[in-house]
Amino acid sequence: MNRRNFLTGAATGATAAVALSGASAQERAPSDGGPDAQTPRIVTLRINGQPYELAIDQRTSLLDTLRDHLRLTGTKKGCDHGQCGACTVHIDGQRQLSCMTFAVMAEGHEITTIEGLAPATGDLHPMQQAFIDNDAFQCGYCTPGQIMSAVGCVKEGHAGSEPEIREYMSGNLCRCAAYPNIVAAVVQARDAMKEG
Ligand code: FES
Ligand code: FES
Predict the structure, then answer these.
(1) What crossing angle do the helices spanning 179-195 and 143-155 adopt, rounded to 10°?
(2) What is the CATH number of domain 126-195?
(3) What top-level class would CATH report for the domain 41-116?
(4) What is the pLDDT of residues 143-182, one digit of tens each?
(5) Are 41-116 and 126-195 the same fold in CATH?
(6) Most CB atoms within 10 A, among 9, 28, 74, 136?
(7) Which residue among 65, 68, 96, 97 has the greatest number of ligand 1 atoms within 8 angstroms of its CB, and so is best to mutate?
(8) In whole angstroms, how far apart are CA 181 and each of 32, 43, 74?
Protein backbone atom coordinates (compact mmCIF):
# COMPACT_ATOMS: atom_id res chain seq x y z
CA MET A 1 0.00 0.00 0.00
CA ASN A 2 1.45 3.36 -0.98
CA ARG A 3 0.99 6.63 0.90
CA ARG A 4 -1.76 7.85 -1.40
CA ASN A 5 -3.77 4.64 -0.96
CA PHE A 6 -3.24 4.75 2.77
CA LEU A 7 -4.43 8.36 2.97
CA THR A 8 -7.36 7.63 0.68
CA GLY A 9 -8.38 4.78 2.96
CA ALA A 10 -7.91 6.99 5.98
CA ALA A 11 -10.10 9.70 4.45
CA THR A 12 -12.83 7.19 3.72
CA GLY A 13 -12.53 5.91 7.25
CA ALA A 14 -12.81 9.45 8.59
CA THR A 15 -16.06 9.98 6.71
CA ALA A 16 -17.39 6.67 7.99
CA ALA A 17 -16.33 7.65 11.48
CA VAL A 18 -18.38 10.82 11.16
CA ALA A 19 -21.42 8.79 10.22
CA LEU A 20 -20.87 6.33 13.09
CA SER A 21 -20.27 9.04 15.65
CA GLY A 22 -23.33 10.75 14.26
CA ALA A 23 -25.45 7.73 15.11
CA SER A 24 -24.21 7.73 18.68
CA ALA A 25 -24.61 11.50 18.85
CA GLN A 26 -28.21 11.15 17.79
CA GLU A 27 -28.69 8.63 20.56
CA ARG A 28 -27.33 11.27 22.93
CA ALA A 29 -29.44 14.06 21.42
CA PRO A 30 -31.42 16.09 23.92
CA SER A 31 -34.88 14.64 24.42
CA ASP A 32 -36.45 18.07 23.86
CA GLY A 33 -35.32 17.89 20.22
CA GLY A 34 -33.12 20.97 20.53
CA PRO A 35 -30.12 21.53 18.26
CA ASP A 36 -27.14 19.24 18.72
CA ALA A 37 -23.98 20.55 17.06
CA GLN A 38 -22.47 17.07 16.96
CA THR A 39 -25.27 15.59 14.89
CA PRO A 40 -24.07 15.31 11.27
CA ARG A 41 -25.96 17.43 8.85
CA ILE A 42 -26.48 16.83 5.16
CA VAL A 43 -24.65 19.60 3.35
CA THR A 44 -24.99 20.28 -0.36
CA LEU A 45 -22.11 22.11 -1.96
CA ARG A 46 -21.29 23.12 -5.49
CA ILE A 47 -17.56 22.98 -6.11
CA ASN A 48 -15.82 23.57 -9.43
CA GLY A 49 -19.16 23.18 -11.17
CA GLN A 50 -19.91 19.80 -9.57
CA PRO A 51 -22.59 19.12 -6.94
CA TYR A 52 -21.58 17.31 -3.75
CA GLU A 53 -23.76 16.06 -0.91
CA LEU A 54 -22.24 14.80 2.30
CA ALA A 55 -23.03 14.30 5.98
CA ILE A 56 -20.67 16.27 8.21
CA ASP A 57 -20.50 17.75 11.65
CA GLN A 58 -21.93 21.20 11.05
CA ARG A 59 -18.91 22.77 12.75
CA THR A 60 -16.61 21.46 9.98
CA SER A 61 -14.70 24.16 8.15
CA LEU A 62 -14.89 24.40 4.39
CA LEU A 63 -11.15 23.71 4.35
CA ASP A 64 -11.47 20.42 6.22
CA THR A 65 -14.47 19.49 4.11
CA LEU A 66 -12.50 20.01 0.91
CA ARG A 67 -9.38 18.23 2.07
CA ASP A 68 -10.61 15.48 4.40
CA HIS A 69 -14.01 14.62 3.00
CA LEU A 70 -13.78 15.44 -0.72
CA ARG A 71 -10.05 14.81 -1.26
CA LEU A 72 -9.60 18.19 -2.92
CA THR A 73 -6.20 18.61 -1.34
CA GLY A 74 -4.97 21.39 -3.60
CA THR A 75 -6.27 23.84 -1.00
CA LYS A 76 -3.67 23.90 1.78
CA LYS A 77 -3.88 24.21 5.54
CA GLY A 78 -1.20 26.47 6.96
CA CYS A 79 -2.28 28.14 10.18
CA ASP A 80 -5.98 27.15 10.32
CA HIS A 81 -6.51 30.54 11.98
CA GLY A 82 -7.03 32.99 9.13
CA GLN A 83 -3.48 34.29 9.16
CA CYS A 84 -1.56 32.77 6.26
CA GLY A 85 -3.84 32.64 3.20
CA ALA A 86 -2.81 29.09 2.22
CA CYS A 87 -6.46 27.98 2.27
CA THR A 88 -7.79 30.68 -0.09
CA VAL A 89 -10.63 29.63 -2.39
CA HIS A 90 -13.23 31.60 -4.34
CA ILE A 91 -16.84 31.75 -3.20
CA ASP A 92 -19.07 33.36 -5.81
CA GLY A 93 -15.88 34.72 -7.37
CA GLN A 94 -14.64 36.40 -4.19
CA ARG A 95 -11.47 35.22 -2.47
CA GLN A 96 -12.23 33.73 0.94
CA LEU A 97 -10.32 31.87 3.63
CA SER A 98 -11.77 28.39 3.73
CA CYS A 99 -10.39 27.74 7.24
CA MET A 100 -12.55 30.59 8.53
CA THR A 101 -15.69 29.48 6.69
CA PHE A 102 -18.00 26.72 7.88
CA ALA A 103 -18.97 24.41 5.03
CA VAL A 104 -22.64 25.01 5.86
CA MET A 105 -22.08 28.71 5.17
CA ALA A 106 -21.07 27.89 1.60
CA GLU A 107 -24.31 26.10 0.74
CA GLY A 108 -26.02 27.74 -2.20
CA HIS A 109 -22.82 29.40 -3.34
CA GLU A 110 -20.38 28.59 -6.13
CA ILE A 111 -17.06 27.42 -4.74
CA THR A 112 -13.92 27.33 -6.86
CA THR A 113 -10.71 25.69 -5.70
CA ILE A 114 -7.32 25.55 -7.36
CA GLU A 115 -8.41 22.28 -9.00
CA GLY A 116 -11.17 24.13 -10.83
CA LEU A 117 -9.36 27.34 -11.77
CA ALA A 118 -8.05 26.31 -15.18
CA PRO A 119 -10.46 26.38 -18.12
CA ALA A 120 -11.89 23.11 -19.40
CA THR A 121 -9.76 23.44 -22.55
CA GLY A 122 -6.85 21.95 -20.63
CA ASP A 123 -4.82 25.17 -20.72
CA LEU A 124 -3.54 26.63 -17.49
CA HIS A 125 -5.15 29.76 -16.10
CA PRO A 126 -2.96 32.78 -16.98
CA MET A 127 -2.09 33.15 -13.29
CA GLN A 128 -0.90 29.54 -13.07
CA GLN A 129 1.20 30.01 -16.20
CA ALA A 130 2.62 33.26 -14.84
CA PHE A 131 3.69 31.57 -11.60
CA ILE A 132 5.57 28.98 -13.65
CA ASP A 133 7.08 31.56 -16.01
CA ASN A 134 8.31 33.70 -13.13
CA ASP A 135 9.47 30.86 -10.87
CA ALA A 136 7.11 32.25 -8.23
CA PHE A 137 7.48 29.42 -5.73
CA GLN A 138 10.05 27.28 -4.01
CA CYS A 139 8.44 24.58 -1.84
CA GLY A 140 5.05 25.38 -3.39
CA TYR A 141 3.00 24.94 -0.23
CA CYS A 142 1.59 28.46 -0.29
CA THR A 143 1.17 28.49 -4.06
CA PRO A 144 -2.48 27.38 -4.50
CA GLY A 145 -3.57 30.04 -2.02
CA GLN A 146 -1.29 32.62 -3.63
CA ILE A 147 -2.74 31.89 -7.07
CA MET A 148 -6.37 31.98 -5.92
CA SER A 149 -5.73 35.21 -4.05
CA ALA A 150 -3.81 36.73 -6.96
CA VAL A 151 -6.71 36.06 -9.34
CA GLY A 152 -8.98 37.80 -6.86
CA CYS A 153 -6.53 40.68 -6.53
CA VAL A 154 -6.54 41.26 -10.30
CA LYS A 155 -10.31 40.92 -10.64
CA GLU A 156 -10.85 43.39 -7.79
CA GLY A 157 -8.71 45.93 -9.69
CA HIS A 158 -6.00 45.95 -7.04
CA ALA A 159 -3.07 45.04 -9.27
CA GLY A 160 -2.39 48.48 -10.73
CA SER A 161 1.18 48.72 -9.46
CA GLU A 162 3.74 46.57 -7.68
CA PRO A 163 3.20 48.33 -4.31
CA GLU A 164 -0.56 47.85 -4.69
CA ILE A 165 -0.09 44.16 -5.50
CA ARG A 166 2.13 43.76 -2.42
CA GLU A 167 -0.52 45.44 -0.26
CA TYR A 168 -3.46 43.41 -1.57
CA MET A 169 -1.50 40.15 -1.51
CA SER A 170 -0.24 40.78 2.02
CA GLY A 171 -2.69 38.26 3.47
CA ASN A 172 -0.84 35.45 1.72
CA LEU A 173 2.38 34.51 3.46
CA CYS A 174 5.26 32.66 1.82
CA ARG A 175 7.81 31.16 4.16
CA CYS A 176 10.16 30.67 1.22
CA ALA A 177 9.98 34.43 0.61
CA ALA A 178 9.26 34.16 -3.11
CA TYR A 179 7.55 37.54 -2.93
CA PRO A 180 9.44 39.37 -5.73
CA ASN A 181 8.66 36.54 -8.16
CA ILE A 182 5.03 36.37 -7.00
CA VAL A 183 4.61 40.09 -7.69
CA ALA A 184 6.18 39.65 -11.13
CA ALA A 185 3.79 36.78 -11.83
CA VAL A 186 0.77 38.85 -10.86
CA VAL A 187 1.92 41.66 -13.18
CA GLN A 188 2.29 39.21 -16.07
CA ALA A 189 -1.08 37.57 -15.42
CA ARG A 190 -2.81 40.91 -14.95
CA ASP A 191 -1.83 41.90 -18.45
CA ALA A 192 -2.71 38.46 -19.87
CA MET A 193 -6.12 38.52 -18.13
CA LYS A 194 -6.82 41.96 -19.66
CA GLU A 195 -6.07 40.60 -23.11
CA GLY A 196 -8.17 37.48 -22.46
S1 FES B 1 -4.96 28.02 6.77
FE2 FES B 1 -6.50 29.52 6.43
S3 FES B 1 -5.47 31.40 6.66
FE4 FES B 1 -3.96 29.91 7.18
S1 FES C 1 6.85 28.69 -1.91
FE2 FES C 1 7.28 27.80 0.03
S3 FES C 1 5.91 28.82 1.37
FE4 FES C 1 5.69 29.87 -0.50
Answers:
(1) 50
(2) 1.10.150.120
(3) alpha beta
(4) 999 999 999 999 999 999 999 999 999 999 999 999 999 9
(5) no
(6) 136
(7) 97
(8) 58, 39, 21
